[in-house]
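Weekly structure sync, notes
Attendees: PL, DS, HV (note-taker this week)

Item 1: Expansin-like EG45 domain-containing protein
DS walked through the input record. Source organism listed as Hortaea werneckii. Sequence as pasted into the shared doc:
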Amino acid sequence: MLTLLKTQTMFAQSFITGFAFALTASAQSYKASFTEYGSGDQNGSGNCNVDTTACGYYTTSGYSAAASQNIFGVGPGEGAGPGCGTCWKLTIQTDSSGNEVSNAGNSIVVKVTNLCPANGNPLCAQSSTSDTNQYGANVNFDTCIDSGASDALFGNSGVGLGVGTAEKVDCSQWSGQTDQ
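Item 1 (cont.): predicted structure, written out as C-alpha cells:
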C-alpha cells in the first residue's frame, strides 16, 4: 500500500511539474506597440494584403500584421523568417502618450505575413525581445489596414499608434485562411 501511495505521489508531482513547464514554455507574451500600414496610410503604402509580402502569402477572412524584426527572425530581402505564419493575440491598452484608449482591453488575433524592418524604423528596431522601443515595447505589430486588422484593433479609439500586449497563440484561435 505504501509503495502504491509513493507511486501516486510521484506521478502527481511529475504531472504538475510537467504541466507548469508546458505552460511556461508555450507562453510568449510581450509589451507591444501597434501601428498600421497599407492602402491609404500616411506613408503612401500599397495594399498590405497581397502575396508579395515578406512571407509570400496573404490572408482572406482573417487579420494580418507585419512583425518587428526581432520576432520575424530575418531582415529585409532575406525571405520568409521563422515568424511567418505565427499567430498573436494583440490587446490594446493606451495611446502613445500612455493615456488609456476608449476601447482599452480590445483584442484581436493576427497572423504574421510581413516584416516591419529595424533599419530606419525605431518602432521595430529592438535587437532582441528584451530590448524596448521608444514606447517601452519589446515588439511592434504593424496591423494591415487592408485585412481589417487596423480597424478591428483600434476601433473608434481615434489613435493610430497604441501600446498593449502581444501574446503568441495557437493559430486555431485565428479566424482566417492563408492564400498564395
